[in-house]
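Session log. Operator J.P. requested a structure for one protein chain; no other inputs attached. Running the standard single-chain path with C-alpha cell output.
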Amino acid sequence: MNDEATRRIIKNLQARPAPPGPRLTVGLERAEALRLLGSVSIGRIVFTQHALPAIRPVNHVMDDGDIVIRTHEGAALATQTGQAGDPGVVVAYEADAIDPVTHLGWSVVATGYAHLITAPGDLARYETMLRTWVDQRMDYAVRIHPEEVTGVRLIPTPGAGEPAAEAGPGRRS
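Structure written below.
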C-alpha cells in the first residue's frame, strides 16, 4: 500500500462519526454464548508456545458443543495436541461480533482442552464441514472441549440518547 492510499484510509476513518457513549456489559449464559460462537466462523485460538502466549486467527465450526478448527502439519498447535496425553492442551478460544462504529455486539471466550483429531472419518467430515480460508493445505483438525464459557453483550447505556435493550435471560435492565 502506498502513502497516498494510507492517507486516504486514515482520512476516511477520521471522517466517521464518533462512536456513541459508554456501553454496558451484560453477562451471557453458557447456552447463549455457545449459540453466538456458532453464529460466526472466525475467532482466535490462544495457546502456549515456548512458555509464552500465542494467538492465531482461525476459522471454526461448532460440533455438538465443541469447537473444531483445522490446521496444518508443523503448526505449533498440531504438534502440541499430537503429543499431549489426557486431558489435552489447555487453550482459550475467543470470537466476537462488535460493530466498529456503534461498539455494540458481543464477545465470547471458551477455555478448555484441545485434542488432535486422528480418526480418518472425523477428519474427512471436518474437511467438508470447515473450509479453510487460507491458501495452505490443512490436513489436521483440533477439537476444543470448552470447560468454561464466558461472554458479554455490549448494549447502550440507558439515558445516553439510545434506547436500552430489552431485559431478558442473562441481561440486566
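Operator note: Helices lie at 3-15, 30-38, 76-83, 120-129.
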